[in-house]
Description:
By secondary structure, the protein is α/β, with parallel strands linked by helices. The chain has two domains: 3-203 and 387-441, Ribonuclease Z/Hydroxyacylglutathione hydrolase-like (Metallo-beta-lactamase, Chain A), CATH 3.60.15.10; 210-382, Rossmann fold, CATH 3.40.50. 29% of the residues lie in helices and 23% in strands. It has 13 helices and 22 strands. A hairpin with a 7-residue loop joins strand 8 (142-148) and strand 9 (156-161). Helix 3 (89-108) packs antiparallel against helix 7. It is globular, with a radius of gyration of 22 Å. The model has no long low-confidence stretch (mean pLDDT 94).
Amino acid sequence: MLKSDRWARITILGGGREVGRAAYLVESTDGNVLLDCGVDVSTGNTPYLELLNVEDLSAVVLSHAHLDHSGMLPYLMRMGYDNPIYMTRPTFDITSLLLEDMLKIAYNEDKDLPFSKGDVKRMKKNTYILEYYEDCEIDPDITLNLFSAGHILGSAMAYLKFSKFSVLYTGDFNYDSTRLLDPADSNIPDVNTVLIEGTYGSKDDKRPSRKKLEQMLTQDILKTLKNGGKVIIPAFAVGRSQEMLLFLKDIFTSLNLEYEIYVDGMIWEASKIYSKYSKYLKDSVWKREGNPFLSKDFIRVRGKKREDCVNIDYPSVIVTTSGMLTGGPILHYLEHLGGDARNSLYLVGYQAEGTLGRKILDGKREIEINGKKIELNLEVKWFHFSSHSDRNALIRFVRDVMNKTDEFVIVHGEERKVLEFAEYIEKRKSVKTPKNVESVRII
């Protein structure tokens, strides 16, 4: 084939000017690679996979385990995909846990999913494990490297090298240090196109330092506990929950506090995986004595203990799923504790448009749970403990890789945030902000 006949493009199957259902198809004359295949956890919307011919796919790469990036991987098996799926070992274990839980919830709620347990098994069988920085030839003219993304355990940025061009997909990444993880790796090779997330790309998306956020949250937790109330912290089972548990353990130890800390939902199972792969975490975490996530200081809540947790009349802290209040045990706690003004609801993660968490954050105080209207009288606050890069961190990353790349393509962000982020980049470099089902030419 003549060089002039070579071409490449990225087609947005999901995650274009929106958060959720991430799926990005890199097409070229060398071969095609799908980056992530998720579901919108707030709406159930799935990627536009009808535009995808799985027989033309050389490989699928999963950046990390969160369902908005992994939730439709088994459906690819249903579509007939039978080539490799690449990810890190922690991502494999966490994805397996989340997909099995997804199937369980669908069964219990008598809801249909577009894939079965058999599809999940086939997905696992097709998975190939990669370590960070390991060279992997996924086709004669395509190589893959994974770099640490600093988002959750095992999260990765994917560097794809084709015969005539290259792409770096950041996935969800954090360019700041957290209690659990070091910042995303910026020591990447030269690359033609950076496919970058813009979740917090707005000019307003600037957060205080982690230390300042922890100080603020500590003060509010202490205020609620001293007033005899219960602190409810809804958090994502993977990542944010483990950070909150580590934070709570440290402040309770340093301040010699003796209040109960309850842990509900799938957090315990996810924490076991964090313990298993602690070497992927910061040195200061895995070198600790004992297990910081499965400590005897935490009380696991299951079954009847959930009733005890809300009925016992003494102050406590409850860490539970789901992080956006879209389902799970958090609804039980809102139903039974939401009306008491002594209690507090502290949101510590991203609240997507349309979710109950976002509605409450925007001021909604009358909600409905199990057909029952609940008037929320408890204090509601949001603390920007995100595992994504904020506006300042995104700009720092762009500056650090500016001389290594020709262009940026922004995805995975609400439209206003993506466009505001693009305004900064376009003064310095070529930038594109495609919508869903749109394609952008690379070469």
